[in-house]
Design goal:
By secondary structure, the chain is of the alpha+beta class. 28% of the residues lie in helices and 31% in strands. The strands form two sheets. The protein has a five-stranded mixed sheet. It has a five-stranded mixed sheet with strand order 4-2-10-6-8, with no helix packed on it.
């Protein structure tokens, strides 16, 4: 019996043999390798998010440039001068639409809702804008033309939509648009049946610009005594 007990004790002792130094090292290295993998995955995810955010910001100016260059989505073109050739006999009606986005206390309307022009003729039309609030407000107009296929041929020489507009309280102003319909439209058979183009504007509010810092080289003005 005693021999049996001693043998059992010896077997139990064998089962509880402490791990070797190599096994202990492997056990400590496994969590470290796991932490390294997590850090790598986190860095990759962060890089992907940063790339996507950067691409979204870059897409806006690229899209605007593409629209201006091609007339896509009814975006009008910017001309630097009048056409060199005489206006054509073919005439087309141009309608004018005016809108104001919510939160902007402006009254905005065209002086004429529709005119007829010769293709290639330079025309000036006016919109009237009134700031109906008791404070100075700023806005900028977004624009397009319909049908969308006519955008590539609607050339603006001058337009209030090119820059932000600042209106004093109660101010009323006439804002001109100088444009022509490019004679190249006659070579585009997709527009053979085109009779009317609608030019549409929408003014959107712009936050007040931050005050400009005083130039570093500007001498300080003397202050009066308090």
């Amino acid at each position: 019996m005693q021999d049996g007990v001693r043998q059992t004790g010896t077997m139990a002792s064998d089962d509880q043999t402490p791990p070797t130094s190599a096994q202990a090292a492997d056990g400590q290295a496994a969590p470290r390798r796991g932490i390294g993998r997590d850090a790598l995955v986190g860095c990759i995810c962060g890089a992907v998010v940063a790339l996507m955010v950067g691409a979204s910001y870059a897409a806006v100016p690229f899209y605007n440039w593409f629209c201006r260059a091609t007339g896509f989505n009814g975006t009008t073109q910017v001309a630097i001068s009048a056409p060199s050739s005489a206006p054509l006999a073919r005439r087309i009606s141009v309608r004018f639409d005016a809108n104001v986005a919510g939160g902007l206390p402006w009254k905005f309307e065209p002086e004429k809702t529709e005119i007829e022009v010769a293709i290639g003729e330079v025309v000036t039309v006016y919109y009237t804008v009134t700031n109906q609030s008791a404070r100075t407000t700023m806005a900028q107009a977004a624009y397009n033309v319909t049908p969308l296929t006519s955008g590539a041929y609607f050339q603006k020489i001058n337009c209030f939509c090119f820059t932000e507009q600042t209106m004093a309280p109660g101010e009323t102003r006439e804002m001109p648009v100088v444009f022509y319909v490019d004679p190249a439209i006659t070579a585009d058979h997709e527009n053979d049946s085109l009779k009317t183009i609608t030019l549409s504007y929408t003014f959107y509010p712009v936050r007040d610009a931050a005050p400009k810092p005083v130039a570093a080289g500007e001498p300080d003005k003397p202050r009066g005594s308090l």
